[in-house]
Amino acid sequence: MNKIKIMINSTVSNLKGERDAVINAFKNIEFVELLGVHPANTSSLTGNARSLTVSMANSCDLYLLILGEKFGLELLSGKSATEVEFDAAFYNDPTKILVFKKEFDLSVSIDQRQQKFVDRVCNYYGGYWRSNFKYIHELKDLVINSFTVWLKERAGIGNDLDYLDHFIRISKQMKPEPNAIVYYKLAKDFVELEYIFFGASHIIQFDRQQIYRDFWGSLSELQDQFEKWL
Questions:
Q1: Residue 64 belongs to what H/E stretch?
Q2: Structural domains of the chain sorted by starting position, each given as residue range(s) with its CATH number in brackets
């Protein structure tokens, strides 16, 4: 059986209970295989931790990011190991990421490097909708509910899609007016979208690199353009 590969990603030392809760949420689902470091790993692997975890983030079907107040291991780039793995998942498929953010204890100051990462991930325009939780049992319920919604959506669209496919798919669903007709064109360096509604044609282009680097921000820009057209 081809299993759905799910990667759990977070700092480890301060979120062991949360990681255990996610594992318990999936333990009786036979078609799911969990990836990631302790406690999801079940064997030793050939390779260094960085290359292996980045590879997991890139190849997994679903990536679960749990955000806490700690920054974790800092790499030479200045990013944390968690952020590097997040980037790998994002550039592979921006629509395979689910974000869960722990409510921070106000008596404990959050690492400002981590706050910067949290702000990036949860940015209103270019980031992700995140589910907030305070207690571990809340996280378990949120993960199962989110997985069910994601699974139903994926069942309808399949998995053999890249980031441009997803961008076009969502752009066609967003429609500025319910009866708008949508056309698209893929060129070497850009994607062109045409929306025809109320007897007028409206065209917008997005640079491929822009979509790749700022997937959700590009879709937010498209929404802003809808308001101008209307």
A1: strand 62-67
A2: 4-156 (3.40.50.10140), 163-229 (3.30.720)
